[in-house]
Design brief:
The chain is α+β, with helices and mostly antiparallel strands. It is built from 5 helices and 3 strands, in the order βαααββαα. Strand 2 and strand 3 form a beta hairpin.
Length: about 140
């Protein structure tokens, strides 16, 4: 019995729609989203929701869909099972230690610099790239 894993990306909305969304809504709402997430991260009760919000920043900024993994199991040349799952992550203790010592402060700086770069046309590509890396900077989340 063998198995294979393939990372698949859900189809994104058309580029013109994503551009219009970014100009009218995404760039300013992302700034609000980040700061609300960090207010939630200050409290122990709000921390899980705040981290969830920070991991969704690329979707809020440009409607960029999250990738998922398609795992198939093959036996004797026949596909037995196909399941969609999240991208495999590092163990939670490692991610927790990273977040406590590095992720919380680095991601706050990282996200605000990215937001400022998105506010100017010249910095836009770098700002979007930084936002796409924000989940990894915050909690080592693989995307």
């Amino acid at each position: 019995m063998s198995s294979s894993t393939t990372v698949i990306r859900q189809p994104a909305p058309p580029l013109i729609l994503r551009i219009i969304y970014f100009i009218l809504f995404g760039w300013w709402f992302t700034g609000v989203w980040i700061n609300v997430a960090w207010v939630l991260n200050i409290t122990l009760i709000g921390l899980p929701f705040g981290l969830w919000m920070l991991n969704r920043v690329p979707q809020i900024l440009t409607l960029n869909p999250s990738p998922s993994v398609l795992a198939t199991t093959v036996r004797d040349g026949q596909v037995i099972t196909v399941r969609v799952q999240d991208v495999p992550q590092r163990s939670w203790p490692i991610r927790l230690i990273y977040f406590v010592f590095i992720g919380w402060w680095l991601s706050l700086i990282w996200s605000n610099v990215a937001w400022l770069l998105c506010a100017v046309i010249i910095g836009l590509p770098v700002g979007i790239w930084m936002f796409n890396r924000l989940p990894a900077v915050t909690t080592l989340m693989r995307t």
